[in-house]
């Protein structure tokens, strides 16, 4: 781990200005005599905003100035303080890291998928941070061709992330995009896989890219200044970029544009979506230069998705109910008047996705919070579901590039079952396990168990909670609990296996996921009842889950640890303001905590598009509601739990200053002496460290913080 000395902390603090610098230095010097380093005290510079007859005062608005050396110095001072505070845990961090690393097969390869006569896969090598992308022609006995080595592309950089990865149908060209700063600035290039050299077609920043079937036409999506995808261009290989044709444009700031090619290769789809409305157009795959034809024009609150299947489209639509139904429509005339219902709307089952193949199609369903895969024979119309063996699990369609196939590739895992890849023979109704991710060190799944319980929210709603613990566990009210949730955007919190998490479970923890409203765990109505002017249900659900687990003696009342990231960080901030007495430790990742200020700034990425998620504070009623829960605005002079807050300097989704301002205000106002740490990654984006070893070290750091705060020393 990178360490900051006391001297480095003083140097960083010395760059702070005015009387604040003197105050901070005095605090630091006093702490030195006491043998401890005092936390940074951020300067205050009031900025006022007048809205709806009120005056908002933000004393830390200056932290938004990313290029200001004072901001950098403050973040570095916080990092120095964090590392100094965590220095006594270095041995524990190292032990945890070695534990977690010891469970990982460092040199490994993923199951290959077939596409256009090649088998494509990724692999890792011990000691290398990033994946290597490769392929073999015909079979895995053929010579390996490396298509991309992210380790080589990372040379000279602190961060590397792959965006687009699209091979032309003839197998000769690779369109790929790379981000080197974490701000989602993916630069698109075209590589000739026959020579290994990049072509002159340098298309700059893109959101996504794909080939038309002819292998000469490349489609790519770009974003506006607020990072909203809004235009789709068509590029002919070899042409200058200024000759590229604008194919599709979305001018409404509430909507994001996207495009893609169907698995059948029969059509290219162009779409726009807001959080409650969608619209699709298409062109024939073999005539990419045609003008897109509209499928169904947008209508407020009508959401639909499209799959191409021969001479018809398969369409999931919410026109008859929030949980969607499945219809078909002729490609020649896809208007609503031509729709034929296949699966009706059901109030208790959400239709999440549709995947079409030549002889069958799959509908991904969510029933009582659990994922189901329904397969239907295209000729007979007969359907059946894949069986899954555990009460709490995650299952999804995996990488399936071939349209004409008898096999379905799907993924399965659970709290106890490592990530597993299966091929399912649709005709024989038989699954074959291709690979289960190895867990080294003698992991025995039979020694662990999971279950699902329910808490009751204040309004009587039953809230599912998925639990994971070691066998032999006794509900005696003594165990530490790690409770996680997200609860926004209709995103479901699916359970998953984590070999790193075993380091907590083996130390007696119960791990829990609360499937709270605002997520999509129980369908669209579940989402609707935790957004906009019902958002506070998300927070009361989470509190109810924590209270239930304590009451039922799954956890000790003074050993509850909670964590969440991004919108889940908003959750952390809100519930900590509402019930600081309920939680012992909080770990918050890139938290969206400054809701009022962020939603008042339409120039920031995501803001305008998220008026339909949180509300528009320019509307008085919505402003007043947001203000009642916005974590930054509701910090008060009270005791708070121990907290670790992580931010990333180049985060384009939740800017670093949200967490930084939040910590600064907490430091100034809280009345306790509990640990409060800010850890800023100065070279990453929303997802944190991009290298696999770096990410594992971050996890070891976080676990060491949690264990130490609970008094667990090893």
Question: Brief overview, please?
Answer:
The protein is α+β, with helices and mostly antiparallel strands and 714 residues long. It has an 8-stranded mixed beta sheet, with helices on both faces.
3D architecture notes:
It is built from 14 helices and 40 strands. It has 714 residues and is α+β, with helices and mostly antiparallel strands. Among the domains are: 107-346, Methylamine Dehydrogenase, Chain H, CATH 2.130.10; 453-557, Rossmann fold (3-Layer(aba) Sandwich), CATH 3.40.50.1820. It has an eight-stranded mixed β-sheet, sandwiched between helices. Strands 3, 4, 5, 6 and 7 form a five-stranded antiparallel β-sheet that branches. Helix 1 runs antiparallel to helix 3 and helix 4 (90-102) packs across helix 14. Mean pLDDT is 94; it is low at 1-35.
Helix content: 10-25%
> Can you identify the CATH class of the domain at 107-346?
Mainly Beta
Average pLDDT, all residues: 94
How many H/I helices? 14
Gap between N and C termini: 18 Å
The named CATH superfamily of the domain at 107-346? Prolyl oligopeptidase, N-terminal domain
Features:
single chain; 714 residues; alpha+beta; Methylamine Dehydrogenase, Chain H; Rossmann fold; 5-stranded antiparallel beta sheet; 14 helices; globular
